[in-house]
Amino acid sequence: MKKLYDATMPITSDMVIWPGERKPQRQLDSIIKFDGSETSTLTLNSHTGTHIDAPRHFLSDNENSITDIDLEKLIGPCHVFEIEDTESRLNNVITKQDIEKLNIQHPKVLFKTSNTKNNLLDKEDFEDTYISIDIEAAHHLIKQDVHLVGIDYLSVENQNNTSQEVHKAFLQNNIVIIEGVYLKHIIAGEYFIMALPIPYVGSDGSPARVILQDL
Question: Helices 165-172 and 135-143 meet at what angle, rounded to 10?
C-alpha cells in the first residue's frame, strides 16, 4: 500500500483559533460508564482547525452548505507546492508572480509556506503575520481551472482584508477552500488527496480530515 500522510491539525482545547472564536471543548456526559461505556459532548466552531469553507460562509446569495460540495472536488490527484519565503515578499501574501512560476497539472493545489516553517499551527497564540493569498493570485488560480485550494494557516486571506475578496472569488467560482492544512511532515510533490468534512446539513463550513497518499 502506498504511504499515507495525515495533513490534519489535532483538535485540542489549547489549539490556535481564529480571533473571536471559542476554543474546542470536550465535556464528559453526566451519565458516564453507566453501562461500561464513555460518551462526551464536543463543542466546536464550524471552522475549527483544518476545515473546509462552504459557499454560504461568505456569499449571502448562495445557500450551498458543506453537504452541497461535490465529492469529486474533495478526492483525487493534487499537488503540494512549497512557496519559498523571500525578504522582498510584501504584505505576507502569495502573489500572481508566485503562481506563474508553478507547473500546475492537477486541479487541486495545497500551498506550503513559511507558516509551516515557523510552526504557526503548533502555537496556541494566533499569528497575524501569516502568509495568505492575494486577489491577483486567486484570479490566476481561477484561470488555471483549479477547483480546490488549501493553505497552511487558518485563512486563505489576509486578516485585514475585510472585504473577503479572495474568499468570495474562490467560492463564486465553485473552488473549494481548505484552511489549516497541516503540512509539517509533507514534502512538496504530487499526491492523492482525500479531504472529508463532517456532513452537517446546512453548515457554512466544517472541520475536515485531510489525508494525502503518494501517487
Answer: 10
Q: Report whether 132 contacts 166 (CB < 8 A).
A: yes
> What is the residue type of 59?
L
Q: Distance (Å, rounded) from C-alpha 152 to C-alpha 130?
A: 9
Any alpha helices (H) in the chain, and if so which ranges? 96-100, 114-117, 135-143, 165-172
Domains of the chain: 4-9+46-214 (3.50.30.50)
- For residue 60, the model assigns a pLDDT of 84
CA 140: distance to chain centroid? 19
What is the pTM for the complete model shown? Answer: 0.95
Phi, psi of 171 (to 5 degrees): -70, -35
Q: Give me the average pLDDT of each 10-residue run along the chain (215 residues).
A: 96 97 90 71 96 94 94 98 79 93 97 96 96 97 97 96 95 97 98 98 97 97
Cβ-in-10-Å burial (0-12, 13-18, 19+) of 100 comes to exposed
CA distance 89 to 75: 32
